[in-house]
Amino acid sequence: MKDILELWKSRLGLNSWSINIEPINSEQVMMPDDIGDDDYFIGVSYDHNIHKATIYHDVPLDEASIVHELNHIIFPHVECGPWNDKLVGYLIAIHTEEN
Ligand SMILES: [Zn+2]
Q1: Could you tell me the residue range of the domain that residue 41 belongs to?
Q2: Taking the model in full, what pTM does it have?
Q3: Around ion ligand 1, which residues have CB less than 5 A away?
Q4: CATH code at 24?
Q5: Is residue 48 scored above 80 in pLDDT?
Q6: Sign (positive/negative) of CA torsion 69, 75, 80, 83?
Q7: C-alpha torsion sign, points 25, 27, 31, 33
Q8: 98: CA distance to ligand 1 center in Å?
Q9: Rounded to the nearest whole angstrom, what is the distance from the C-alpha of residue 88 to the centroid of ligand 1?
Q10: Residues ≥6 apart with Cβ < 8 Å to 52
């Protein structure tokens, strides 16, 4: 997943960011951000001042969930939900056509 993260950092202009992926236990979840239903958690915390972010997850990550979390960094006002997921599908489609 680290390779996919680095690839999308580059594609989305986030090369100056240091972004970590951190697995967590479901019981630890106290984050304001989540996607999907309550059965799992994926979220990101980020700091635009120091260009650092951490993606937390308690289920295996896939490409779409990584792009979803990176969108939160790029567009801080975009919440989880249909808009973000449409954007994810759009971005992946563009880059799939390119390759
Ligand atoms: Zn989200």
Answers
A1: 2-98
A2: 0.86
A3: 35, 80
A4: 3.30.2010
A5: yes
A6: negative
A7: positive
A8: 26
A9: 11
A10: 17, 18, 19, 46
Ligand 1 center to 18 CA (angstroms) = 19
* CA 80 to ligand 1 center in whole angstroms: 4
Nearest Cα to Cα of residue 40 among 29, 52, 49 = 29
C-alpha of residue 43 to centroid of ligand 1, in Å? 6
Q: How far is the CA of 6 from the centre of ligand 1 (A)?
A: 19
Distance 45 CA to ligand 1 centre (A): 11
* CA distances (Å), origin 84, targets 3, 23, 25, 80, 97: 22, 22, 25, 6, 20
4 is written with which tokens? 């996919």
Overall number of domains in the chain = 1
- 65-81 pLDDT, tens digit per residue, is 999 999 999 999 888 89
